[in-house]
Specification:
The chain is α/β, with parallel strands linked by helices. About 45% of the residues lie in helices and about 15% in strands. A 6-stranded mixed sheet has the order 1-6-5-2-3-4. A hairpin with a 5-residue loop joins strand 5 and strand 6. The chain is globular, with a radius of gyration of 16 Å.
C-alpha cells in the first residue's frame, strides 16, 4: 500500500469515528426505545451501566472503568449495576473475570457475554471482532450505555459526566 493510500485510509477512518461520535452524543440526550433491554435476561433490576470493552485492552477500557468507579462514588444511594459487555467471540468468561478482578472493589462489575448475539451488538453499535486479527487491535467503542429500571429506553453516553447521568436518573424517577 502506498503512502498516500495509507493517509487517505487514516483520514477516512477518523471521519467515520467523528460521525459516530456525533451520532452517539445526539442519542445521549434523547434516549431510544429499548425492547432489547428486556431481552437481556442477565440484567438485574435497577439502573444498569454497560461498557462494551475488550479483554486485554490497555488504553480505553482502564480509563472507562476508572470513570465508572468515579460515577459510582458520586451516585451513592442509587441502585446501579455495572456490566462489562463482551463482544469478542474468542474470549472465555473466566478471562473476562480475571481481567475485571482489579476493579471489583471499586465497581463490583460483572461480565455480560453477548459475543454470539450479533444482532444485539449491531443494535447497540458495539465493535464485534469476529476475525482474530481484529482482536489484536486496541480500537473499539468508547461509549457507555445507560439503561433505566423500567427497561423502556436506553441512553448512549459519549462520556460519563456525573451531572448528566444524575439528571437522566432524576428525569426517569
Amino acid at each position: 500500500m502506498k503512502r498516500w493510500q495509507k493517509i487517505s485510509c487514516s483520514i477516512l477512518a477518523l471521519g467515520l469515528v467523528a460521525i459516530l461520535s456525533i451520532m452517539i452524543l445526539r442519542l445521549e440526550s434523547t434516549g431510544r426505545d429499548c425492547d432489547l433491554c428486556k431481552q437481556i435476561p442477565s440484567l438485574e433490576s435497577g439502573w444498569v451501566l454497560l461498557y462494551p470493552g475488550l479483554v486485554g485492552c490497555s488504553q480505553k477500557c482502564p480509563l472507562a472503568l476508572a470513570n465508572m468507579a468515579k460515577l459510582k462514588e458520586g451516585l451513592v444511594g442509587t441502585k446501579l449495576q455495572f456490566y462489562y459487555l463482551i463482544s469478542d467471540p474468542f474470549v472465555e468468561e473466566s478471562e473476562v473475570i480475571d481481567y475485571l478482578l482489579p476493579y471489583q472493589n471499586s465497581l463490583s462489575i460483572k461480565p455480560l457475554m453477548l459475543a454470539n448475539d450479533t444482532k444485539t451488538l449491531r443494535t447497540l453499535g458495539v465493535y464485534n471482532p469476529v476475525h482474530p486479527n481484529l482482536q489484536k487491535k486496541d480500537i473499539h467503542n468508547d461509549h457507555f450505555i445507560l439503561i433505566p429500571p423500567n427497561r423502556k429506553k436506553l441512553y448512549f453516553l459519549g462520556r460519563l459526566d456525573l451531572n448528566s447521568v444524575s439528571n437522566l436518573i432524576l428525569e426517569e424517577n
